[in-house]
Design goal:
mainly alpha, 2 domains
């Protein structure tokens, strides 16, 4: 969902804007709260998602091939 790099970039921009101000504590607290919230969510990185998508595609292809082999074997037995 949210890329950690984006969060880091937002945090860096906030740090630059809020440096040496009372809002610095707010920025730290907000960043900690957002990080904590995201840690509680069951999310994966885009890279992990893409890898699992590829694994699923290969698994589906293999299943399709195995189903065709089973069907061919069953037809061979039925013909005997």
């Amino acid at each position: 969902m949210l890329d950690p790099k984006i969060l880091e970039e937002i945090g860096n921009k906030m740090s630059t804007l809020l440096a040496n101000s009372p809002a610095k504590d707010f920025e730290k607290n907000a960043k900690a709260a957002v990080s904590s919230l995201l840690a509680k969510l069951d999310v994966v990185t885009r890279e992990e998602f893409d890898i699992q998508t590829q694994v699923l595609a290969r698994t589906r292809q293999k299943l399709k091939e195995l189903e065709a082999r089973v069907e061919a074997l069953e037809k061979g037995r039925a013909a005997q």
